[in-house]
Design a protein that fits this description.
Residues 84-325 form the AB hydrolase-1 domain. By secondary structure, the chain is an alpha/beta fold. 49% of the residues lie in helices and 13% in strands. An 8-stranded mixed beta sheet has the order 1-2-4-3-5-6-7-8, with helices on both faces. The radius of gyration is 25 Å and the shape is globular.
Length: 350
């Protein structure tokens, strides 16, 4: 009888172990199944969760700034300190989270602000006047004032369309800027044509009835856009490509409005027309294999702006922030420190 009870106790213990493994397996299976379901059925949800996770991991907080009925959405990390604050302006049809890859490699003590450009993501959409380069400059100046970023001079960074805006901003509001970094900026009359220039000519000849390469509507078109913008070939699963299309699709009409405005007569070469007014120390970073805005634009800028620092990146296309984030962060930080040391030396000598 005693042996029977010992045997029964042993069996119960084994069942408890089996139940424990079953519960543990089920606990692990639920998030795995949820991930697979999101990946296969709702990839756009997965993309949003990805950005949320990386903002949280990098210590970025999302805030809103209201300016007389106009609302800006921005993320930030750190507080103003010894180093200048950094304001980052993204490119056409992107959003503030495109800078996450670069922010990852910047010191955590730096005060960094990444804003959604006018009409993009969480920032208010109004009339097309706000989407011209000059209109965006006015709105960004409004944003800078609303969060009191201009209490001290700050470093301004912009890429592509954001680079055009950043350059014009530096020309229009020189007293607010200590230095500027332009990454593959558009708005320049570059002497060499690119693949995108050829697309643009075809679009103009068709009276814009053809699809705009920077506004994809299918996973294949999304893949083509990545090939156009990036020299590095990223292997992106079809489900993620579909998710990116799904995220962007509701905004495509808006993107078309912005695109038509920034290639219009008043905006297409706005940076070129304002280069002679830039007095702040200027850094230009460009991918040598850029197929959207030719790297020859760097020479054009350097010839007009005295002392301009030019950093050209090998094996890199237009999407510098995505292709070379660590190198980009290092170059920006080096430039900021160099300019700050130069200002300190000037003050001591005087």
């Amino acid at each position: 009888m005693k042996i029977f009870w010992i045997f029964r106790a042993a069996m119960a213990a084994e069942l408890d172990v089996v139940n424990l493994f079953f519960v543990a397996g089920a606990t692990l299976a639920i998030p795995i199944l949820a991930f697979l379901a999101s990946f296969l059925l709702w990839p756009s949800v997965l993309i949003k969760v990805y950005y949320w996770y990386w903002r949280r991991t990098l210590g970025l907080q999302v805030h809103y700034a209201d300016c007389g009925g106009y609302r800006f959405c921005y993320s930030y990390r750190g507080k103003p300190g010894m180093r200048p604050s950094i304001l980052m302006l993204h490119g056409f049809s992107a959003h503030k989270d495109m800078w996450l890859t670069v922010v990852k490699y910047l010191p955590k003590h730096l005060h960094i602000v990444c804003v959604d450009m006018p009409g993009h993501e969480g920032t208010t959409r109004t009339t097309t006047e706000d989407y011209s380069i000059q209109g965006q400059v006015r709105r960004i100046h409004q944003f800078v004032g609303s969060i009191h970023l201009n209490r001290k001079v700050f470093h301004l960074v912009g890429t592509s369309m954001g680079g055009n805006v950043a350059g014009v901003y530096a020309a229009c509001y020189p007293s607010e800027i200590c230095s500027v970094t332009l990454i593959c900026p558009d708005g320049i009359k570059h002497p060499c044509e690119t693949k995108f220039d050829n697309h643009l000519q075809d679009l103009e000849q068709s009276n814009f009835t053809l699809n705009i390469p920077l506004i994809p509507t299918t996973p294949d078109e999304m893949e083509d856009m990545f090939r156009l913008c990036s020299h590095v070939r990223f292997k992106i699963p079809q489900q993620i490509l579909q998710g990116l299309v799904d995220v962007r699709e509701p905004h495509n009409a808006f993107y078309e409005e912005v695109f038509m405005k920034i290639i219009g007569e008043k905006s297409r070469y706005a940076l070129q027309e304002h280069l002679h007014l830039i007095t702040s120390p200027l850094q230009v970073i460009w991918g040598k294999q850029d197929q959207v805005v030719d790297v020859s634009g760097a020479t054009v800028i350097a010839e007009v702006v005295p002392g301009c620092r030019v950093d050209l990146l090998d094996n890199c296309g237009h999407s510098v922030v995505m292709e070379k984030p660590c190198r980009t962060a290092k170059l920006i930080l080096e430039f900021i420190i160099l300019q700050q040391n130069a200002r300190s030396g000037t003050k001591k000598s005087s």
